[in-house]
Amino acid sequence: MNLTQISQSSASTAQQPTAAVPAPWLDVRPFWRRLSPLDWLFALAFATGAGYALVSYQARMDYYDETVLVGATSASIVLGWRWKQGRLLMMLIATLSVAAISVYHGDLARADSVFLLKYCLSSQSAILWMSALFALATLFYWIGLLSRSDTGGAIGTWMTWAAALMGFVGLMVRWYESWLMGADIGHIPVSNLYEVFVLFCLITALLYLYYERHYETRALGAFVLLIITAAVGFLTWYSAARDAQQIEPLVPALQSWWMKIHVPANFIGYGSFALSAMVAVAYLCKEHGILAGRLPDFEVLDDLMYKSIAVGFAFFTIATVLGAMWAAEAWGGYWSWDPKESWALIVWLNYAAWLHLRLVRGLRGAAAAWWALTGLLVTTFAFLGVNMFLSGLHSYGKL
């Protein structure tokens, strides 16, 4: 066969139609049609567990508690369908929490006498494990980033997952422990600075782990875990100096079902804002040539900064509206210009302006990063500084 024949044969072959291979993202079937049997099994197991909780504890729940349980169950199932790693985390949290509760046998004193509770699964032990694992995760993320080691970053990721697991188990068990202390003391563990700092660490970590998987990079873990470790450091000091880990009865203003939805929504906002600020730090480092070759592209950093602020703003807006409704019930007015309310409004306006300029004026680059980083200072004062230096209707949150 000469060159002319070979050329004609190649051209003929190239013109032949090839079988189309559909890409996964081109699947136009409804979402529920794309669910696997394992997805439905997860949903069944989660719904069964929620049903068991509803039947077992219905006497202690009112209509609003039941509504929150149903809503949280539905949201968790959908989240588990879309985020497989999150699904595994939920199952492990449920398993370890039930195991811990079963060991108590209704006796709170067993937390100091049973090995599994004393050193692993009581609320204080689990939260201590969370704190240690977050600190170690930070170390390994930095080792992985500075040495370009995939192993170091991978260990950091697994330790972050393990820290999130132990932290959530600690909160679930703490909830149960509060009920063992008395029906008038039992409450969801999001009522004081100690508990919400744990919640902040967990939410920020989960948000980061989701984006780490989405963008397929571990380079940002070294930055994001810094602020989580800073929160862990405050938590450790606060526990040692103020004995804050002790479970206390709720003050009258907090004895409301609104707390179950207002506080988590608020801290999804805080966690997202903190995440965006640490991404901004990475952006500014890269722009000044610091670790530039080890960090993601500017486009990735900019996109993650924007998505974090957008998610945080949405949840912070919801939390602010819920807080106003709670205030109307507790204090007789939707807004009283209390220092906490005023600073919440400042935080909201700050990020509203950031998003407005992003969408209208195309805010990008170093200006957006510096603004996001400054926003962290504003948010920190609203979260913590108001409690330290100002007083008002939210004085129950003082240090």
From TrEMBL:
Pfam families associated with the record: Cytochrom_C_asm
UniProt KW Metal-binding keyword: no
Keywords attached to this entry: Cytochrome c-type biogenesis, Membrane, Transmembrane, Transmembrane helix
All residue ranges annotated as the Cytochrome c assembly protein domain in the record: 190-394
GO cellular component terms attached to this protein's record: plasma membrane
InterPro entries in alphabetical order: Cyt_c_assembly (IPR002541), Cyt_c_biogenesis_CcsA (IPR017562), Cyt_c_biogenesis_CcsA/CcmC (IPR045062)
Membrane-traversing stretches: 38-57, 88-106, 126-143, 155-173, 193-211, 223-241, 261-284, 304-328, 343-360, 367-390
Membrane topology, as annotated: Multi-pass membrane protein
GO annotation, biological process: cytochrome complex assembly
Protein name: C-type cytochrome biogenesis protein CcsB
Species annotation: Paraburkholderia tagetis
Gene designation per UniProt: ccsB
